[in-house]
Design goal:
Number of helices: 15
Structural class: alpha/beta
Radius of gyration: 21 Å
Number of strands: 7
Shape: globular
Strand content: 5-15%
Strand order of the largest sheet: 1-2-3-4-5-6-7
Helix content: 40-55%
Largest sheet: 7 strands, parallel
Order of helices and strands: HHHHHHEHEHEHEHEHHEHEHH
């Protein structure tokens, strides 16, 4: 009898649930079971499955135990088969071409801030998607709801990423970064000495999103002019859809409050902001999260007309969300954004050199 790897099947189910934007408690059930079983010898898992005692293990429930038993019997778990049968969307030619051109993701989170998975899991998921790099951009300290990184924690993360990179498959690399808060005066929420060490810096507005247009414009222009900022993240801050019931919690803590009822766009002078991005060579993020869809298509077209470059990023807080780039590519292609307009169609070294040029 040929068996399957039950831990790999559980992780694949969790990935597909994350990609489908399913409730976090469903994802957690499969990731918790996978973590528990991965820590046991394979023969122990098999004997427990045969004895019907898998559910006595912490984190393993009836559904996940059934999947394990099916895997060990050499069968594709029914739960996984159903997900695979209903997965995916067909991209049109322009969107598919753009998605194929992307070599990495410039906006991702781990459990060091408000992500739900360790850095290693995020990186290995990116490898499986065929990426060459992933920019790790956990939050900065002022976003306390998202467990933003203090300077000391960021220094520790830099050391940790260096260690993880040594163990990752050849040809893949985690680029160091941060999603730094753009503060009320336009300054960036982290030590400049540390920002200068990072490969890529994403700057986003997370507070006082209802400021009047003149104030918000000045705030954004100040940040764009800062030599440490490379990418303007989710520029309007809007939320257009509600999260699925039960989806709030681990993996998306930073989106919790706004996701219950949606959120309108921040008001700013888009012509001035995008002109500044073009002038300073900063990229405008096309945020692929289904509840964000930021910037709106009318502003994406305006940024393109202004001569801006872009990144198509996922803002992923879980491994399965790394495959959300397809959503950003669909919207980008509708606005005429081509691979040559997109920074993360470049190899890692070129992205790093581009970011260094701002300093």
């Amino acid at each position: 009898m040929t068996t399957r790897d039950p831990v790999a099947d559980l992780r694949r189910i969790a990935f597909l649930l994350e990609r489908a934007n399913e409730a976090t408690y469903r994802v957690r059930a499969f990731r918790s079971a996978a973590k528990t079983l991965a820590a046991l010898p394979a023969e122990d898992v098999a004997s427990r499955a045969a004895a019907g005692t898998l559910t006595k293990l912490s984190g393993v429930g009836d559904v996940t135990a059934r999947c394990v038993i099916e895997s060990l019997a050499g069968e594709e778990p029914v739960y996984l088969r159903r997900l695979l049968a209903t997965e995916g969307i067909d991209l049109d030619d322009a969107a598919a071409e753009l998605r194929q051109a992307l070599r990495g993701d410039c906006h991702t989170h781990s459990d060091w801030s408000d992500g739900g998975s360790p850095i290693e899991e995020m990186a290995l998921a990116a490898v499986e998607l065929g990426h060459e790099y992933m920019v790790l951009t956990d939050h900065s300290p002022s976003l306390t709801v998202a467990r933003g990184l203090t300077a000391d924690r960021l220094r520790k993360q830099l050391e940790y990423v260096a260690t993880v990179n040594e163990a990752l498959p050849p040809g893949f690399r985690i680029l160091t970064g941060i999603e730094v808060d753009i503060l009320a005066d336009g300054s960036l929420d982290q030590d400049e000495e540390l920002l200068a060490q990072l490969d890529v810096v994403v700057g986003s507005v997370h507070s006082n999103l209802r400021d009047e247009s003149t104030k918000m414009t000045k705030r954004m222009l100040t940040a764009i002019a800062n030599p440490h900022l490379d990418i303007l993240g989710h520029c309007t801050g809007r939320m257009v859809t509600k999260r699925p019931q039960g989806a709030e919690g681990e993996g998306d803590r930073g989106h919790r409050r706004a996701s219950k009822s949606g959120r309108p766009e921040s008001q700013f002078d888009a012509d001035a902001v995008f002109a500044a991005c073009a002038e300073y060579g900063k990229a405008v993020e096309i945020n692929s999260r289904p509840e964000r869809q930021d910037p709106p298509k009318r502003l994406m077209r305006k940024a393109l007309e202004a001569g801006c470059s872009f990144v198509v990023s996922t803002d992923a807080h879980a491994p399965g969300q790394l495959d959300w780039q397809r959503f950003g590519c669909e919207r980008a292609s509708l606005c005429g954004v081509l691979p040559e307009h997109v920074i993360n169609s470049w190899p890692a070294e070129q992205v790093v050199e581009w970011a260094r040029s701002h300093g």
